[in-house]
Amino acid sequence: MKQGSILIADDEELIRRVLADTLSEEGYTVETVDSGAKAWACLQEGSSAQPFDLAFFDIRMPEPSGLDLLLRAQDAQLSTHIVIMTGQTTMANAVEAMKRGAFDYLTKPFDLEEVKALAARALEAHRLRTDSAPPLAAPGQQGQIVGHGPAMQALYKTIGRVVKSDATILIQGESGTGKELIARILHHYSSRWRAPFVGVNCSAIPAELLESEFFGHERGAFTGAVERRIGKFEQAAKGTLFLDEIGDMPLALQAKLLRVLQEREFTRVGGRELIKTEVRVIAATNQDLALAVKEQRFREDLYFRLRVIPLALPPLRQRREDIPELVSYFIEKVNREMDTSVSGISADAMALLVQYPWPGNVRELENTILRAAVLAPGRMLTVADLSLAAAEPVLPENLVELSFEEVVRRKLRAYFQHTSVLEPCDLYDIVISQVEKPLIELTLEYTAGNQLKAAELLGINRNTLRKKITDLRIDMKKGDGEQGTGNRH
User: Fold this and answer.
1) What is the value of pTM for the model shown?
2) Fewer CB atoms inside 10 Å of the end CB: C or N, the chain?
């Protein structure tokens, strides 16, 4: 029998019962309550006079909410690991839960096998746990980032974890993936949110002026320096300095930047005064810095100093499931900002957007929607309005003659050939999800929408199938899934 006490708080009886039965069968001691107030009382009392090892809290239930309970537990320095459960997979929920100190969060409907694995991981971590830092103050409104696919959910969790730290972060990703947006969100959710966020594009400033741009200069330091100028490090005092396109920084300046990061002090160009700096540095690049180090275009010591916490942004082609949501967001945005009146997009046009390779990533998608909305003769965007060539096929026409393994191999080879930044990005999960979606869609089509039969044919349980339908954003036609689905929650 497994050791560990677990508290479950949710105002839905079915959720409580299913979780309790599942975890009790695993050998855990389980207690359930239907409100935040009862959950808080249980947390304070503990289980058999001992603190609960793990708790599952619904994000929305009679007060206090799951997030409020999380803060209370942090303030009281309770050792219980807390998992937040939510039916809304938004960035705000994910980041806020992780930022407030949640061990993890689950999205409803959830896979019971995932629950078991999470409980085992949390209880093991509880045995090794050290006291965590107190939660940060909530900074207000969240940034605008869109997407609910697996790649973005992983990104949200990482953001929630790293905002508590002042460690230097290196964001790597292709052009147009939103590196500056992520940097602003990291600043926004950090304890430095009241201080300035200052950005420098290292590729847009002439090399001879970069040092002055970073550190400032004294009057008369060089021709044209008619007055003292404050540099970006001083402008970002106690805030965040964002160094975009760091891979384009000259080697001579890389050495000076390394010293500032290590010593936390610098002098202005032409000056003698030693100035202390207290900024959080976030760097970003669309280059493969590891390759740049090998080619001696980038200092190895600076690379490791910047890459304390690496963050890889997935290109849009690796999160196609988010494209419909992005399209809706950009249509609403252009209607608001450009006074257009686009009401929607045709199915053929959306299919083209989903299939298109998007070498310019999210930025290219936004510009495509903006151009189409402004120039379209009607209120409904069509394929003709998008000005995009049909996505070129990666596979030969004699597809039927290829084995499934060869199809996957050719798709992956094409991906590696067209990807410049190869960093950890959950490629395994991304590929599996892209195989799962058509598999489940075609199986449901074969079973006429009967989820019970589809689950049996796939060899998975019905709850797992329902969760995958939600996670993969599979569009069920009206009436689909009503057969053999049982009670819903």
Assistant:
1) 0.57
2) N
